[in-house]
Amino acid sequence: MIVYVHKRLDTNKIFYVGIGKTKKRAYSRQKRNQYWKNIVSKYGYIVEIVAHFDTWEECCTLEKELITKYGRKDLGCGNLANMTDGGDGLVNIIYTKERNNKISKSHKGKKLSQHTKNKLSNSRKGIIFSNEHKLKLSYAHSKPILLIENGKILKEYKSIKQAAKELNLHSNGISKVCKGEYSQTGGYVFKYKK
């Protein structure tokens, strides 16, 4: 039985502490939390076997000590991707109110910069837009558009956003109609005002 750590390739810093019955667990990507997966996909990782033990209890004890030493990111006291204090894994976890309160308190008063908020938002979408692209999107969505029926202008909207709100449509669909990517959306046809 082993205790192992995962280190980021870019900094060589430990970001995960684990235990396993064999070395195979240390190298497995199965049953890992999303935070672990994000680190690995962005930076890569190496495995280091820290210790071999005869009993599971000894592995658990060292794992707990190492997690305490390096600190968990979710509790705001370190950089580890571990979601428990060790010795139990992620199987059948029932979070206590005490634990949830501790996590909540560790995040109170912390403010993220707008830059960080944008990066988090974009990373969740899997898309990172350049500033130039953001300006183009903003401009495209703020241009006046026309609602067309049978070749006649029915109504003019100040922006895609306004039309989407009034007609209960997705702005992305309206934008694609205006660009000629879709023929219509929600039964409506739109064009950018020239």
Describe the overall structure:
It is elongated, with a radius of gyration of 26 Å. The protein has helices spanning 23-27, 34-43, 56-70, 97-107, 114-125, 131-142, 160-167, 171-178, and strands at 2-8, 14-20, 45-52, 145-149, 152-157, 189-192. The protein is built from eight helices and six strands; from the N terminus they run ββααβααααββααβ. The strands form two sheets. The chain has a three-stranded antiparallel β-sheet. 42% of the residues lie in helices and 19% in strands. The chain is of the alpha+beta class and 194 residues long. The protein folds into two domains: 2-107, GIY-YIG endonuclease (3-Layer(aba) Sandwich); 143-192, Orthogonal Bundle (Arc Repressor Mutant, subunit A).
Keywords:
Arc Repressor Mutant, subunit A, GIY-YIG endonuclease, alpha+beta, 194 residues, three-stranded antiparallel β-sheet, 8 helices
List the helices and strands and how they pair.
Blueprint: E1 2-8, E2 14-20, H1 23-27, H2 34-43, E3 45-52, H3 56-70, H4 97-107, H5 114-125, H6 131-142, E4 145-149, E5 152-157, H7 160-167, H8 171-178, E6 189-192
Antiparallel strand pairs: 1-2, 1-3, 4-5, 4-6
Structural class determined from secondary elements: alpha+beta
Termini distance? 71 Å
Q: Specify Rg, calculated over alpha carbons.
A: 26 Å
Shape: elongated
CATH class call of the largest domain: Alpha Beta
Mean pLDDT: 81
Task: Assign the CATH topology of the largest domain.
Answer: GIY-YIG endonuclease
Please give the count of helices: 8
Instruction: Please give the CATH architecture of the largest domain.
Output: 3-Layer(aba) Sandwich
Give the beta-strand count.
6
Whole-number total of structural domains: 2
State the major sheet.
3 strands, antiparallel
- What is the strand content? 15-25%
Please list the strands of the largest sheet in the order they lie side by side.
2-1-3
Low-confidence stretches: 89-94
Order of helices and strands: EEHHEHHHHEEHHE
